[in-house]
Each structure stands twice: as C-alpha cells, then as structure tokens.
Write a structure and sequence with these properties.
By secondary structure, this protein is of the alpha/beta class. It contains twelve helices and twelve strands. Helices cover 35% and strands 14% of the residues.
C-alpha cells in the first residue's frame, strides 16, 4: 500500500510502517542529518529503506498533488511546540507543522492517517488546541480564512461537527496516549497517536491492546526469579537492583495484568553489547563511550532492570542527567547510540549518521520502530479487510 511519510526524522515511524506493509511514495524531512542517516543506510544496502524517495525539503513547500493516490499519510510533526522542554507556544510556534499535515490530508485524501506527538499536547493548557488539531483532521476541507484566528476557526469546526452535515471530505478521528513499554519496547515512552479513517470507508477500528505489563515483570523478578536466572545476575547484584526497582514502585509505577508478557528492561535491551569503553566495542558501529554523564536531583538515570526512562532529544544536546544508565557499581554513564537505538527498537543493522549529540537528537525524537509496527499493522489490516470486502461486493454484483 502506497503511503506518504512526513517529518520522517531518523526513520523510526517509517521503518515500522514499512514492516507493516506500507511503501512510501515519498519521505519528506527538512533536517539534513536525518536525511543523511536514511541515505547512508540506503548506500549500505539496508533493505527496508532501499526504495525510499527521500526529499530534503520543508514539508510546507512539498508538492503533494504530484504523488497521486496514497492509502496512508503518516508522520510526527515537530513536537517542540508542545513538549515539556519547549516554549509551549503551540499555534504561535513557527515549528507547529500540524497545519501542514492537515494540508497533505486535504490534497491527497488518503484512506487513513497516523500522526504521533508528545504527551504534552494533552496537557490542560493545550486542551483547546488539541481539540482544534483533531477537528481540522476531521474536516480538512474546512480551512482557516484570511485573518481568522484559530479560535474562531475552531468555533466553525465545532459547528460543523454538531450540525451532522455529512457532505465533503470527513475523517473519523481517534487519539490515545500509548506507553511504549506496554507494547514490548524497553522504554517508558508515552506518546499521543492520532489515527483517522476516511468516513466513506465505514471503518470500525480501535487502538491495539497492550501486550506487556509491569506486573508480569514483577512476577518474573520477585516471584519466580526467572528474570535473574535468565540474565545470570549475581545474588549480590540482585538485591541491589531489587532495591532500585522497589524504589521506583514507591514513586508511582503501577501494576497491570500479570497474564501479559513482561515489560522489557534496559538489561534485556543491551544484553550482548560489550562495555562501550572496551576494545571489543570498537567493532560495533554507533557503540562508543561518551564521557561526562552526571546525575542531578530528579535526574538519576535509568534503572538496569526496568524499562529505560524516556530518551530525550533536547534543543541544544542531551539535557543534564538524561539518557543515562545507573550501573550496579554506583556509577553512571550515557547510553551509547547503539544502546539508545535498541531502546527505540531500531535494528542493529541500521546506522545513525552524525555526531553523538546529533544522533542522540534523532533518537530522542524518534518513534520506536516496534510501536510504529504495532499501530501500523493494525491500520493496514483494517484497510486490507475493507478492500477485500469491497471486492467481495463487486463479485456478488457481477455474479
């Protein structure tokens, strides 16, 4: 199924959707380093990106009409306008690319779209604007007028929604905050996914159910002990790590259905990688030691036997106390690029281009590949089922 990938970044969402069966007719990204990462992997022969047509261009300037029909539009509009670490300007931030995403939907009229953003967009201070985004995507033909404020436009969109008018291009839109850890990603990463299906397709869809849980991990660690045995953790280290896990439980982690698979941990993710300061690490691409890690109050790194804390991008490099691992010996160090890629479930064969700061920015902004695959496969299945149903109806009429 043909798709359009906007705001592609380092390729996380695109890779997951490629695995789900979508083939991008165009991959649009304005950042040079992100484009270099994708193109570098094409040169290396990485199979999933071989046929990607990468456009190093501002998404506002891209000619969407030239693409022809696409089944899906996907992308992660820049999150800085809504992130906790940003300036919180939303509509007044020049980096807000949701209007461009709506424009692409309006021009191409895809059967579905998937957009991802930071959890911060759901904060009370952005509640009206988050509703505005969803209504724009629901009625992309109802555009903002010259000199009309976004609040006035929101009012017209609300009137359209309550009128029950079924004319024009419409999408049935749903949004949900997903925690990546609940889907087998070794990272506590909460992000908003906005999914829409064109109303004339009569789709009935909901977000995939969680497959992993904290309670199942606790059962393996404190119940059967299977987790410690699998990783051959020494008894002295087990007690130390148990204390750290219990400390995080006391700080608010909640348990869920133990019948699911266990959350994946940092230890699960980086098993098999040598110490980044060792000679053996030199043969592994993107696995170099980065000095300077230092904890701060409230920023004490990721516990080895829990999912990692959310990887951060930062406007000017990795923020202090972030993207670190708390080692059993009491020391701290930064995750290497390869370790961070594993936390984001990128394949080991996928290489990141640029300095440590630049590659960590790409990874901090990325959608976990496995999570993109889970959501994308569910959407793809729905579209294929609808396509098969339309074919059956034609055959019944012909017969």
């Amino acid at each position: 199924m043909r798709s359009l990938e906007l705001f592609a970044g380092g390729g996380g969402l695109g890779l997951g959707l490629e695995l789900a069966g979508f083939e991008p007719a165009a991959v649009v990204e304005w950042d040079k380093w992100c484009c270099d990462t994708i193109r570098h992997n094409q040169v290396l022969g990485y199979p999933l990106v071989q046929n990607w047509k990468v456009h190093h261009v501002d998404a506002k300037e891209f000619d969407y009409a030239s693409l022809g029909e696409v089944e899906l539009i996907s992308g992660g509009p820049p999150c800085q306008p809504f992130s906790l670490g940003g300036k919180h300007k939303a509509y007044d931030d020049a980096r807000d690319m949701f209007p461009t995403a709506v424009q692409a939907v309006r021009v191409l009229r895809p059967k579905a779209f998937i957009f991802e953003n930071v959890k911060g967009i759901t904060r009370p201070s952005f509640a009206n604007y988050f509703q505005y985004i969803q209504l724009q995507l629901s009625y992309p033909d109802l555009t903002i007028r010259p000199r009309e404020s976004w609040l006035a436009h929101l009012g017209r969109l609300e009137q359209q929604r309550t009128s029950g008018n079924a004319e024009g291009l419409r999408y049935n839109v749903v949004a949900r905050v997903l925690n990546a850890a609940d889907y087998g990603i070794p990272q506590m990463r909460e992000r908003v996914f906005i999914v829409g299906f064109r109303s004339d397709s009569n789709q009935r869809w909901s977000f995939p159910e969680a497959t992993h849980s904290f309670n199942a991990l606790l059962k393996q660690q404190f119940g059967t002990g299977e987790y410690w045995e699998e990783h051959k953790v020494k008894k002295s280290e087990r007690e130390q790590q148990r204390t750290l896990v219990r400390d995080r439980i006391a700080k608010g982690l909640t348990a869920a259905d133990a019948s699911l698979r266990p959350w994946q941990t940092v230890r699960d993710a980086i098993t098999g990688l040598p110490d980044p300061s060792s000679r053996a690490a030199r043969s592994i691409l993107n696995h170099s030691f980065q000095p300077g890690a230092k904890p701060y109050p409230g920023h004490t790194g990721s516990v080895l036997d829990l999912p990692a804390k959310t990887l951060k991008a930062g406007d000017h490099g990795v923020p202090g106390g972030e993207n670190m691992i708390a080692l059993p010996n009491g020391e701290y160090r930064y995750f290497t690029v390869r370790e961070s890629a594993r936390l984001q479930t990128f394949p080991d064969g996928y290489i990141f281009h640029g300095s440590w700061t630049e590659t960590m920015r790409q990874l901090g902004n990325a959608v976990p590949v496995r999570l993109a695959h889970v959501v994308g496969a569910s959407v793809a299945s729905q579209l294929l089922s609808a396509q098969e149903e339309r074919l059956r109806r034609r055959l019944r009429k012909a017969g």
